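Sequence design from tokenized structure. All designs in this work follow the same two-part layout: the structure record, then the generated sequence. An example of the structure record is given first.
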């Protein structure tokens, strides 16, 4: 009976996990805009050395708290778009301005794990029972209840919210994300008025247009974000950093090459794209690094 319960648990776990994975992968999905509100980690000692456990949470557009299985890829205040399963509300992938993290297992990995677990279960039982446990004995009235008990137990753990089947949403209050004055104890740099030109030595830069949407021809994923697109002209810019100012909603992130849009900024002229947090209010374009920067009012 104990052996049959163990077999039921192993097979039930695999069947429930694979079933849930298949349903998530083949079922519908929906995207949720959010801003990373907490990014922390804990280092624990294990048999194979230190192990880092990351805890990353974000606030969604409707002010709910969601947990993101993304490790250290995204920083606090960064706008992200999470793709969730419509069946289970679990995170399948998370995309930011410059990276995407897949949180859903691949089919090859699931198939290999399932086959390995099945062979392991039968191998352990074969060594314990010898040749007495034949497939025909699994159908006896005495064996079936024990086997089914193991299947039900494993399925309950995998599929219910109290086990591994919990959604990505977490209880919590809306954390404050006010990054407007963060790290600026030395005061604000000089600001150039709207329509003006930033001049620093041989560097000049001005913004000739602003549109609150992605540019035409950009990759489709960019349309899932709130986007601010600038048309800029510059001289002597080189590798000088361009950023948008943060506000209480979070911190914008620049999109490399405007996600493939024609006419992206080439260092002299073109489009500069940023993904911005929900509710973001246009402020300043920061030219240069902290301590050696100027602000251009937008």
């Amino acid at each position: 009976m104990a052996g049959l319960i163990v077999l039921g648990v192993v097979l039930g776990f695999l069947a429930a996990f694979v079933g849930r994975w298949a349903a998530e992968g083949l079922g519908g999905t929906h995207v949720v805009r959010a801003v990373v509100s907490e990014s922390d980690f804990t280092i624990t000692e294990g048999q194979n050395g230190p192990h880092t456990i990351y805890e990353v949470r974000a606030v969604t557009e409707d002010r709910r708290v969601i947990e993101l299985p993304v490790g250290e890829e995204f920083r606090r205040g960064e706008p992200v778009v999470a793709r969730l399963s419509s069946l289970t509300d679990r995170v399948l992938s998370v995309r930011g301005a410059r990276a995407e993290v897949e949180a859903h297992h691949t089919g090859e990995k699931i198939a290999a794990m399932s086959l390995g677990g099945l062979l392991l279960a039968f191998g352990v039982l074969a060594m314990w029972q010898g040749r007495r446990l034949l497939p025909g004995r699994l159908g006896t009235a005495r064996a079936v209840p024990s086997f089914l008990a193991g299947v039900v137990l494993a399925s309950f753990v995998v599929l219910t919210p109290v086990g591994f089947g919990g959604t990505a949403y977490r209880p919590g209050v809306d954390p404050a994300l006010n990054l407007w004055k963060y790290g600026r104890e030395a005061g604000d740099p000089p600001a150039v008025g709207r329509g003006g030109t930033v001049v620093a030595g041989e560097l000049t830069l001005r913004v000739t247009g602003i549109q609150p949407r992605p540019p035409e021809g950009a990759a489709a994923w960019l349309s899932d974000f709130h986007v601010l697109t600038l048309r800029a002209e510059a001289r002597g810019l080189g590798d000088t950093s361009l950023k948008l100012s943060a506000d209480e909603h979070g911190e914008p992130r620049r999109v490399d090459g405007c996600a493939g849009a024609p006419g992206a900024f080439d260092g002299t002229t073109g489009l500069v794209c940023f993904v911005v947090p929900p509710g973001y209010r246009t402020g300043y374009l920061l030219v240069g690094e902290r301590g050696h920067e100027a602000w251009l009012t937008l």
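DSSP finds three helices and 16 strands in the chain. We note this feature because it recurs in several other targets discussed in the main text.
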